[in-house]
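Human: Cast an eye over this sequence-structure pair and say how the chain folds.
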Amino acid sequence: MDYVYCGTDPIGASEDILSVYDAGSARGNGHFSPSFNGFNIGTTDPDYVELVPVLADGGDQFGVSSVAFDDYEELLWMGNQGVRPPSLCYYVANAIPASFSQGHVTSYYTSSMQKYTSFQVHATDIVRQITTLDSGVLVLTQTSLRHQIRRGLPKFTHKSNNMREMVCMLQLSPHRLVMAGLQEDLIDFDMRSLKETRLEHLGAAGCTVLRKNSRFLFAGDQFGTVTLRDLNSLSVQHTIKTHTNFLSDFSVQGNLLISCGYSGRQNSLAADRFLMVYDLRMLRLIFPIQMMIDPQMLKFLPSLTSRLAVVSSYGQIQLVDTVELSEPRVSMYQINTNGSQCLSFDISSSSQAMAFGDQSGHINMIAAVQTPQPQFNPFSRNTEFADVVPQLPMVAITDTNFPLSSVMLPHLTTGTQWFSDWPEELLHYTYHRPKTIDPEVLNNMKMQGPIGYSQNPRNARRNQIPYIIEQGGSNMTNGNGAASVAKTENGVKIIPRRYRKVELKYTKLGTQDFDFEQHNQTCFAGLEATLPNSYCNAMLQILYFTEPLRVKLMEHSCSKEFCLSCELGFLFHMLDKSSASSPCQASNFLRSFRTVPEASALGLILSDRSCNVNLITLIRLAVLTCNIYKYALSQNWNRFILHQMHYEIFDSSKNSFASSGSGQTITAAENPSPASETSGSSDLYESICDDNAKEDGNRERSKINAETEISKIFGTKQICVNRCIKCQDETAKENILLACDLTYPTNVKDSEQYFHFGTILKRSLNSEKSIQAFCENCKKFSPTNQSVKVTSLPQTLAINCGLNNEKDISFLKRQLNRCNEKPSAEAAASLSTSKPCRYGANCSRSDCHFMHPDRKSPSHTSNQSAGNVSSSPSGRQKSWFPLTFTMDINEQGELQVQTQSDKSEQQEEDGEKVPAKTGDNERMYALHAVVCQVDDGTQKNLVSLINVHRQYHTMKLAESLEDPQHQWYIFNDFSISPVSPQESVWFTLDWKMPCVLFYKSVEDDLESASTSSSTVTDSDEPAIPSESSCGDSPTNLTNPFLEDMAGPIPGNLSTDATLKPLQENEMPQSGDLVAMDAEFVTLNPEENEIRPDGKTATIKPCHMSVARISCIRGQGSDEGVPFMDDYISTQEKVVDYLTQFSGIKPGDLDANFSKKRLTALKYSYQKLKYLVDVGVIFVGHGLKNDFRVINIYVPSEQIIDTVHLFHLPHHRMVSLRFLAWHFLGSKIQSETHDSIEDARTTLQLYKHYLQLQADKKFTNALKNLYERGKQLQWKVPED
């Protein structure tokens, strides 16, 4: 077979004449046989042989514009050209199947070219390039970038105005991609955020080829210029001019850059018969390589770095060696392109196969002679295929023993079930419920270890069990604390993912390996729910995002040991500083919460086993009488925490007033804030300072009705008038209501009609009823008419929704259904389609716009419209609970509540008449937060939906936002997601029920926003409102170490002999070193379970509590001398003292028996917080876990951890005992642990680390450490 020369140069010189020897004359028969076999010039055997070509999908009309071998699996990808010839427009429109069109991508499995997947990426554009990733493939067209998994499902499609005529792309890192084309900009694309991070200007020539090596990014334009750019900044470093007219392709390997292109000859373009070779070290042309074909494309062989494959547009291939140029070994091949042009080619990573795509729509492949079944990759992973449809068994017609029920029935065409199907209640196991234990038995039971003994009450005969057990019922609890049997549902309710309770997955490292950012993509920190009584996380988040309350609590400080207000201030400080990747724990707050006797008396303290109680009943309990307060209150957690903060702030202000009046002189220049508070509240305390002159009831009543910061925020002032029916005597008293309970109609006639939310709220705030009360005039209990009226409106209105009985729930259901029967125009316009949802009843998206057979999804808008609704309080909403309403007190003293629906109905009745203004005491309230109970059928949890204001985003993001829009978020422990405003008032009442609503005054909100914006300084970080009064200077911080100076250590306490409190001249400053260590005890043990595979999994980690905190000086003349050694007293039961590891013995933490220097956790916490605030640097071993258990936030730049200092990456952590023995030659922790000894050792290790770094011996010392540790198995030798 003769070689046909297809060049444009005339053949005249003898060196241009080639002698071609035929390597075989066998031709294939038919369409699928190759036209040519491999051949070589010379006598050597060919290296490659051509396989059977394949007609690609749509190849009869579209050419193959791109081919690419998969780097991870045995797949070959192709993309079609997508350009219709003018002469075939009519044929294409009528003959191409509907399943195939332009912009299509198809994959083939192995060299047998078995079709794997096929999908369309664009309707009209050409597929320019295909790149494979671990998670799928990237397909570049002229105007878009598509990412799809290998099975064909799309992941994202990126389009922008910057993508006009894309040609090429290149992956620089796992998450970074650059794209360019016949346009002036090169696009730097981030595949994690799916955003264009940078636009680099290229010029009018654009870029057609992108390559890279370890140093540069190579960008070649269409006019023959290759620019060498920096991989990070993409700036131009060097420029190489390769060809005079046009650059076709180039490849980079090692220090060589080889290109092919076109030059001008006789006023026309002609392909250069030479490959230009450039040395990247010298950046100049070294030698050209003469070719026998017209080079169009080229690429280095991956397995042979000195060998190059060059392809011409006619399907000719020449293998060139870049090393043996003196005696070249020329190998040439001809691909059967059916007379068309070769458009693309690629080489597999194993170099065993090459693929070519031509204009005729065929894919040609050549394989190495030694491997007739080539592998595309050296180590490919298995390709996932669809499950094989099981074949029906072959059964003889005479077989009478074959069970016909084993043959699967075909799919139903009509109906939902077969007539032969059994009913659902007969398809699951049902057992008799055990008989409940008699309450009398539980009352008289005496425990002996895990066994309880009680006398038989003889209420039933021996072995007598009732056959019929009561059905239904609710999760009620009897007087003995035993929960009655509750009705459960089969299966788990399908609810949105953001509402479900997220379970932490624990490893041997605890929660360090858990990816919290997967559940929280916001800038706010969540709260972990691993501790008992973590159900209050939802309420804690609402209190934090109430700006006036947050500012007040962070300024609050008192001497009470278990003060919830102080603990909330510490927790809010942690939430300010923490991020989404490191959620906080409310451990210290919950520790103080468990010690409050009122909370225990109200049943607010839960054990670990009572995690599935009805949280609505818990959040809003029944009315109880408390002997301490001597009056009746509707007790619930919301009201409890508001009243508790009210009393604590009241007592703290009273104590500060008493101390200032006893002789402490405070000037306005030294401390202006307390002076102003004292002067402003002096009239208040004059009436109650003489406690001995008043009765207990009057004193408690004055304490309740006293005005504090809490009552200013949440307090609704009411006047209660009691009129005796017999003598008509009237008595009036003023009350402050911190939380309002919604009271629903109880009459049947009232419950059948429609009530607006404003009507129910007005009836709840202004009530009138008949009661039995003591009359001072009649001197006996008489029937009394009691009327309550509102006299002043609060800044924030807290509303308890009730819903603790079936009547209230059924009433609210009727109101919601009737509200949904009146669709608004906005809601109808928001629905974009009436098509049924593909998931049907299994759809878990609450914002789905498609039709569902079982529910009505709320109408959601886009993020832009959602922001407008939140910023516009008067926006209409389709819900019984309004997003905004207006409340005012007219001149007659009557309360008026008007929602948006009330206004619209009034305008329809009055026509265009404008209502007159009712009074000056008018406020518009907007929904601020909602607490909901979520029941998925297996467990219940509380979530909160909060409208986070702009100042919180400004504080977290450290930038000023121009758009004053707010954003709604759902807080589900550590899972935080943005939601639309309409979702906050959307309730299904089957799995999502409202508990507490918080409405904030819009006028006060605007005033606080303007005040906070005016306090923003010109520094890099915005001023935090809670810290504005204290300042950033350490001199303005309260120094708790002054108490240690005033009160010397008693001599009878067994403390460290070298303990020396800080003196006034050695108070810590910013940057000072403080070595610290802490010891802990176990309150609750770790809970594990054995999985079916035999491995142990942690269900709940152990609950630790700090027992000892020691701090020593890190510099100065007293370096290494401790100044703080506190043993933390505890009132909770300790399960394990961990004496071997902590040195704490039983009795050390008991104030009645201990001889240690016991102190409260709050006081030690204040000392550590002071050290953190002044900016000291803590040195220790494993400090991250210590600070986590202590529940304090310390910035990473203030922590020096010897665990990480002496750690080799990807190796194990080294214990403090082994480090001390290896580097310091001292043995510690021989019998037990001592926190002062450990802290002093970490300080010495850090000093030794600095010395090694100064001597430049640290790297060798670290290697010796691990070598010696492996030899000794990381155990300190006894000798």
Remarks:
- The longest strand covers residues 921-935.
- Residues 637-661 form the longest helix (25 residues).
- The chain has a mean pLDDT of 77.
